[in-house]
Design a protein that fits this description.
Shape: globular
Number of strands: 0
Number of helices: 19
Distance between the termini: 31 Å
Structural class: mainly alpha
Length: 422
């Protein structure tokens, strides 16, 4: 699995050096047979490695030997592994090539053709409330309009939330028309999408000042690109970098009802871990900058005390006390966002797992389903992958969330994590 980071040439050489082809195939078969006993993280790594391996051998494999998974529940490990492997293969090739090299019997597990779904140009779009504005926006963007002119195209769209709230904080119809139109126009490549997002960044920020509006942006993106997981991963990464959406919005979106059908898909957790890592990296950067500035300020103050005031020549690169204080405030705000992100994630885990356990108890059925296995092991994965950051907030988690009142199956995961540092 470590070979995933090698390029194609090095990978082929390494494999040929270590294994004969038969031995590698035999090892792969053994791992496939043991999927039912593997942890989720291991299955995910296996799928990533296997897709990379297939891409180096024209996606050839004795697929018929694995035909048992075709008739299984899609949430069971073997069926899930094949489905996710094909999704990974799609990132390394193109859709038709996957179809040409995989038996037709595997059709239920193969990914859909990755194409944007733009509802404002589909049959029956005339009945949608935003169609006219969408077509006007398309013409304006093609005519190289400014962000302000793009906003003008949306000004007549009524807010569907007005009936529910006297002063809604955002207009979901404006967001839907703007985001779906922009993503559809930029569908040809990542570069086209990035250029469009950069040019109309002001519009994104104007329409989505609050978290609910940012979740609406993510929902619209999902509607447009639900058949292209890689595109969604990359777009959300870009939205986080450009602060179109906040990490907390991404976390809440992942655990929302809208995403419940995709919650066990590997790309969703790729997005979540990427979001957490971005937040952690941001905090670490601010922490380092603050500590360095504090050290320079302390050194300047020591030097000032040791020298006469007349002889002292202040280092122009030494930060002022006011600047260090502002850096500390910025750091504390980022740490607050990081803490809030973890609280949201663990709270959502507790809610969905508690609901599942309560439902199973009320129906007198076994709670240990395939769905439960994926989710409880994802909870374990979050603890282990981000243990350094999570442990900073261990007391808060113990006091507010992982209390004796929650189900023991969930509490046990937290207690096992705590025991690692006991």
């Amino acid at each position: 699995m470590d070979h995933c980071s090698l390029n194609c040439v090095n990978y082929s050489q390494a494999v040929c050096h270590k294994f004969k082809r038969f031995q590698l195939a035999q090892a792969t078969e053994m791992m496939f047979d043991r999927l039912n006993y593997m942890k989720t993280a291991c299955i995910e790594r296996f799928a990533t490695w296997f897709a990379y391996h297939l891409s180096n051998f024209q996606f050839k494999w004795s697929w018929e030997d694995w035909s048992e998974c075709i008739h299984q529940d899609a949430e069971l490990p073997k069926a899930k592994f094949c489905k996710e492997t094909f999704q990974k293969c799609l990132r390394l090739s193109y859709h038709q090539r996957i179809l040409d090299n995989v038996p037709e019997t595997f059709q239920p597990l193969l990914p859909f053709r990755p194409a944007p779904h733009y509802k404002y140009e589909k049959e029956g779009a005339g009945s949608l409330p935003g169609t006219m504005a969408a077509h006007q926006l398309i013409a304006s963007i093609k005519a190289k309009c400014t962000p302000e002119e793009a906003i003008q195209c949306l000004r007549e769209l009524k807010n569907p939330l007005m009936d529910e709230d006297d002063e809604p904080s955002y207009n979901p119809l404006k967001i839907d028309v703007f985001v779906s139109t922009l993503l559809n126009l930029g569908h040809k490549s990542f570069s086209h999408s990035f250029a469009a997002m950069a040019k109309f960044h002001y519009v994104f920020r104007s329409l989505a000042e609050h978290e609910d509006a940012q979740i609406c942006i993510l929902n619209t993106m999902y509607e447009v690109w639900s058949t292209n997981q890689q595109r969604m991963v990359v777009l959300i990464d870009k939205m986080l970098k450009t602060q179109i959406v906040e990490p907390s919005a991404v976390a809440n979106w992942i655990f929302s009802e809208k995403m419940s059908q995709d919650l066990n898909s590997f790309y969703v957790w790729e997005i979540l871990h990427s979001t957490i890592k971005k937040m952690n990296k941001h905090v670490n950067k601010l922490q380092t900058e603050f500590e360095e500035a504090q050290d320079k300020l302390d050194a300047a103050e020591r030097k000032a005390r040791e020298m006469d005031e007349e002889d002292y020549d202040r280092d122009p690169e030494a930060p002022t006390e006011e600047r260090v204080e502002r850096m500390e405030e910025t750091l504390e705000a980022a740490q607050g966002q990081q803490k809030n992100l973890f609280l949201i994630i663990f709270q959502r885990f507790i809610i969905i797992l508690t609901n599942h356990l309560a439902h199973c108890e009320s129906e007198s059925i076994d709670h240990n389903t395939a769905w439960y296995k994926w989710i409880i092991e994802r909870l374990q994965q979050v603890f282990l992958m981000h243990h350094e950051q999570v442990y900073k907030y261990i007391n808060t988690l113990e006091t507010l969330m992982f209390t004796s009142e929650i189900d023991t199956h969930i509490l046990e995961v937290f207690q096992q994590f705590c025991a690692l540092r006991a």
